[in-house]
Amino acid sequence: MGADTGRRRIGYVNLPAQFEEERTEIMQAVEGVFQRGDFIGGAAVGKLEEELSAYLGSPHVVTLNSGTDALILALRALDIGPGDEVITPPNSFVASTAAIVAVGATPVFADVLPDQNIDPAAVEAAVTPRTKAIMPVHLTGRMADMGPLMAIADKHALAVIEDSAQAVGSTYDGRMSGTIGTFGCFSAHPLKNLNAAGDAGFLVTADAEMAARIRRLRNHGLINRSDVQEWGIVSRLDTLQAEVLRIRLRHLPPVIERRRRNATQYRAELAGLPLFIPPCRNIEFNTFHTFVVQTDRRNDFQKYLADKGIETAIHYPVPIHLQPAAAHLGQGRGAFPVTERQADQILTLPINQFLSAADISYICAIAREYFA
Ligand SMILES: *Cc1c(COP(=O)(O)O)cnc(C)c1O
């Protein structure tokens, strides 16, 4: 409060600051990998899987090359392919839908709620005899409404693939994101809360056989050094990335705490402004991968913030059903009105763990100045 509103520069992310905090640990780990030369399949990969398993409370963790591959391999393990439908929201990062298309299945969109997450009633309405799975996305780090979604899945005998790419460590009703459905798929892309130094991802499941099958699929489908029963791909996590992620998994709880603290400060200092911020629910623990506000003056507000040195982003400006690549699905403008309206109203404010209370106060003071 009472922050000085003199111009400063506030970046959306701050990866160099993260490196400075971890320089010694990271450089030692990198040196170890180069000295051993165990670039693929090093011991760190298995150790990371055990540590993630303990953190998430899930019996099987399979590390992979990306969050997108996690989604694709979960679909493959469920034998979902041509003729099958998977219900997913049209306002995610394009990878969720792209994974469904990649296995030859048909994405069926269900519109979202004011909090940007998939609307269980719209999911129920989208179920057909061809539906095989629901793929909810925990957008922004806020969990989709898993209670009703799991009830719909049970009723229609559908698998649930949680796209937890933005929600590592988030919980719903005391359960970790990714561990409620059949699969939880995570990304460790450099811009995610648990971030590697390049592409990386992993999936979790309670099903030992599916986990074993995905371990084969990520390594050419090989069952030993020379035999292949079904064709796979190459989607192993590099040892270097595993080392980086082992270090960063240890630092994840304070990262999440700092983001939550920033969110609490935003809520307090933006209160009363004409900005919609989804209210916290008692049953959730939100890890705030992003902090999104909604306003019908979005473009003008974004420009005002940019002029004051505040970098913001839009996640995502073009709904997936309106992407040129989605034309074959035949869903034009007007098909998903909530998603379409939000695409014009959402603005992601900086919330990274390196922002100080003074930085957040500055952003909020500029916002109050704009709406005054
Ligand atoms: C980042 C992201 C993905 C894809 O993860 P990659 O590791 O970049 O492949 C999938 N879904 C959502 C919602 C994401 O935010």
UniProtKB/TrEMBL annotation:
One Pfam family from the record: DegT_DnrJ_EryC1
Family, similarity comment: Belongs to the DegT/DnrJ/EryC1 family.
Entries under CDD domains matching the protein: AHBA_syn (cd00616)
EC number: 2.6.1.-
The protein, known as: DegT/DnrJ/EryC1/StrS family aminotransferase
Superkingdom of this protein's organism: Bacteria
Keyword Magnesium: no
Molecular-function annotations in GO: transaminase activity
InterPro entries documented for this protein: DegT/StrS_aminotransferase, PyrdxlP-dep_Trfase, PyrdxlP-dep_Trfase_major, PyrdxlP-dep_Trfase_small
Keyword vocabulary terms for this entry: Aminotransferase, Pyridoxal phosphate, Transferase
